[in-house]
Amino acid sequence: MAMLKSSPAFLVLAFAFFLCFIMSTGSYVYFQFVQQWPPTNCRVRSKPCSKPRPLQNFTIHGLWPSNYSNPRAPSNCNGSRFNDGKLSPELRAKLKISWPDVENGNDTKFWEGEWNKHGTCSEGMLNQIQYFERSYAMWMSYNITEILKNASIVPHPTKTWKYSDIVAPIQTATGRTPLLRCKWNNNNQLLHEVVFCYEYKAKKQIDCNRTAGCWNNVDIKFQ
Ligand SMILES: *[C@@H]1O[C@H](CO)[C@@H](O)[C@H](O)[C@H]1NC(C)=O
Ligand SMILES: *[C@@H]1O[C@H](CO)[C@@H](O)[C@H](O)[C@H]1NC(C)=O
Ligand SMILES: *[C@@H]1O[C@H](CO)[C@@H](O)[C@H](O)[C@H]1NC(C)=O
Ligand SMILES: *[C@@H]1O[C@H](CO)[C@@H](O)[C@H](O)[C@H]1NC(C)=O
Ligand SMILES: *[C@@H]1O[C@H](CO)[C@@H](O)[C@H](O)[C@H]1NC(C)=O
Ligand SMILES: *[C@@H]1O[C@H](CO)[C@@H](O)[C@H](O)[C@H]1NC(C)=O
Ligand SMILES: CC(=O)N[C@H]1CO[C@H](CO)[C@@H](O)[C@@H]1O
To answer: Is residue 9 part of a domain?
Structure first.
């Protein structure tokens, strides 16, 4: 046994198991809390949205455990599958307003997809109920539409803003740097998502790094 322990083969094997463990637990470094502007979803979509939304609320896209070196990872971890029965009627009512499926109209299916793809990767920190409760609390903590409105940034068919024009008031209101994501439509860059970043425990908001987002040198429309 002593000989086996010190043998290189054992060390390699132990390291391989360690790597498997890291990968199967879907290790992450921080969270991205992603909110979207539903009218942009509907504008860039090939099919019309099932339930067009008024120009009122940014809504939740998802809460994504993330890794700085690859913000799309981890995903689809080996955790418990989405269980609709775990959501109380109260929580469900809150999510229907904050986290609607603006494109296809099946809210439950949207929640199921986000949990299975992202929530499973942070299940050790937030179980399914905590994942949805925490997301709702994050949504409630800042009203992006109102922050922008107070800075005279309101939906407009032709007006444009620079990236920094939109980031600045959000930064002032939250004390943290958000990340903006855009979608292209008819050669226009449309504001689509505002990302807040949270540390590992999803409690404290932190600055987001400027990773791929809206193009810096092209003005942004908010419609
Ligand atoms: C983040 O991703 C990189 C590249 O895939 C990986 O090497 C690293 O271990 C990951 N970090 C964590 C904490 O999972
Ligand atoms: C926007 O959020 C407010 C506050 O929760 C809610 O009263 C309102 O119905 C929401 N609007 C839409 C279109 O969902
Ligand atoms: C909505 O999605 C859920 C979860 O995937 C599914 O069980 C349900 O049948 C869907 N409802 C409709 C009306 O398609
Ligand atoms: C956010 O602010 C807008 C504009 O003041 C308002 O219409 C909306 O109801 C607010 N939404 C929430 C969730 O409070
Ligand atoms: C927006 O302005 C109104 C009116 O001055 C103020 O009551 C509200 O707190 C402001 N909201 C934000 C998010 O700054
Ligand atoms: C992202 O920001 C964090 C916190 O400031 C920092 O530790 C990390 O190195 C940054 N990562 C990249 C890829 O810029
Ligand atoms: C909780 C869970 O889904 N665990 C699964 C992880 O993956 C193994 C092997 O594929 C399954 O047997 C577990 O059920």
So the answer is: no
Atom of ligand 4 nearest to the CA of 57: 11
DSSP track, 7-25: SHHHHHHHHHHHHHHHHHT
Q: Quickly list DSSP for 101-167.
A: -TTTS-HHHHHHHHHHHTGGGGTTTS-HHHHHHHHHHHHHH--HHHHHHHTT----SS--B-HHHHH
Cβ of 78 closer than 6 Å to ligand 7, yes or no, is yes
Question: Which residue's CA is the closest to the ligand 2 atom numbered 7?
Answer: 97
Domain that holds residue 152: 27-221
Q: From ligand 3's centre to the CA of 108, what distance in Å?
A: 7
CB 31 within 8 A of CB 197: yes
| pLDDT, tens digit (0-9, with 9 covering 90-100), for 165-219 | 999 999 999 999 999 999 999 999 999 999 999 999 999 999 998 877 899 889 9
The helix (H) or strand (E) run that includes residue 93 is: helix 89-98
Both tokens of residue 219? 């003005």
The protein residue whose alpha carbon is closest to atom 6 in ligand 1 is 69
Atom 3 in ligand 1: residue holding the nearest Cα: 69
* 2 in a structural domain: no
> Per-residue pLDDT tens for 70-115?
888 899 999 999 999 999 999 999 999 999 999 999 999 999 999 9
* Reported pTM: 0.87
Could you tell me if the CB of 68 is within 6 A of ligand 6?
Answer: yes
* Number of domains, the chain: 1
Ligand nearest to the CA of 81: 7
DSSP class of residue 41?
Answer: H
